[in-house]
Amino acid sequence: MKRQVGQVLAVATVAVSAASVAAYALTPGTATGGNVPPATCAPGSDKRQLRGMWITTVHNLDWPSKTGLSPDRQRSEYVKLLDTAVKRKFNAVFLQVRPASDAVYRSSLEPWSKFLTGTAGKDPGWDPLPFLVDEAHKRGLEFHAWFNPYRAAYDDKTAKLPAGHPARVHPEWTVKHEGRLYYNPGLPQVRDHVTRVIKDVVRRYDVDGVHFDDYFYPYPGSGAKFADSAAFRKYGDGKTLANWRRSNVNKLVAQVSKAVRETKPYVKFGISPFGIWRNKSDDPNGSNTRGMSAYDQIYADPKAWIKAGSVDYLTPQLYWPRGLAIADYKVLVPWWAKAVRGTGVDLYIGQALYQVGTEGAWSKAGEMPAHLALNQKFPEVKGDVYFSASQVRGNPLKVMDRLEEDHYARPALLPLIQGLPKSTPAAPAQVRAVGGALVWQAQPGARAYAVYRTSQQNSCATADGRNLVAVIPASASPAYQLKAGGFFHVTALDRLHNESAPTTVKITLP
Question: Count of alpha carbons within 13 Å of 503, Cβ hemisphere only?
Fold first, then answer.
């Protein structure tokens, strides 16, 4: 990251009255770009942290709450979920736009999702995705479009699929397995189709990220073999079946990563893998766990994605409590932290909010807050994503209240991911007090503004999160309601939260 030095910092003293005020310039100082704090600043609380929630459309788990709702009702339900995210000082949502080779947006490549109307392929009368994205952005939330890559249908009755469904047009792409229909990951045509679907969304909609969950090859079920032997004979290239399957997934991940980057370089690509890569009993590099292995059983190899640089972030689903012998949260967090250390791949932890209030350790309201306290010991952990939005809103055992009080008392900027575009936006201009509000002139290209407050002039004011009091979306009026006087430092943030130098004013309340 590039240090910005030598820019002029405008400092003004402003007395706030019921109407407005006069300002006068003080001695100019030196501003440092917010992407990198001044070298002399002592480390403090990190102001950059991803705080997100998954919004699940499959089976109407989160949104919409049931099929057949009117567009107005769908919009109303969604806005309530976003407002909950804002209330909890979150900054990202991950919404499932493709549950199973279907679409919650208007697509020429795949049919409308049945979870909108109740009937697969039926037009709901509007395209939800522009609204879903815009409403998130209005509230300062990043929008990640969540895709399931290989699930073709929830049952294996191909004839029930809408006419024109890719699995109906190309039955040779599919594998029937334990009552469900999957695309065969071993076929280049499947990889090309999935990539084309994702590229279409990135090109046409203003999404901030592309997201995969943990579903690759099917999870172990009743023991039936996945019928991909013909593809293996044709494309196996001398590999073992297991290595070939992992290679197929790796090829898709790399292909999607390249397509996203070529289409819009600022769009992030990340995956939320199953929480155990491999167990130490099978691999000395594995974790000291005894659970299912993503590497061996669903052929997902996050360490390969890290090494190849084909993902911007990983969000492993660590859906187990501390002390669980087969999969201890206290064991898995340091394992994943080590896996990404020094690689430039960001690490966010997938949190099982849906488990809170169930049984065992999850029956205690302190379990989830303890997860976040443990995370703080590992600088590689740069945030958390909660499954899922309904539980964030439901606040089981009032745990979200505790998280807000103990960990989310202040807002946070998004982490800066290595390899994504870097810039230094123009600093806000005309920062001043009007009535009881701090206001400034909107800056071209700004997605949001950060407001910091200190009691004294401080060149390290914006270096960490201790002084951050607000992140104001650019869609709102550029204003912050004043509650106290002091020095206020306002920065501009672009869509990736690259940060400008601060503009500082001193506000004196009457």
Answer: 22
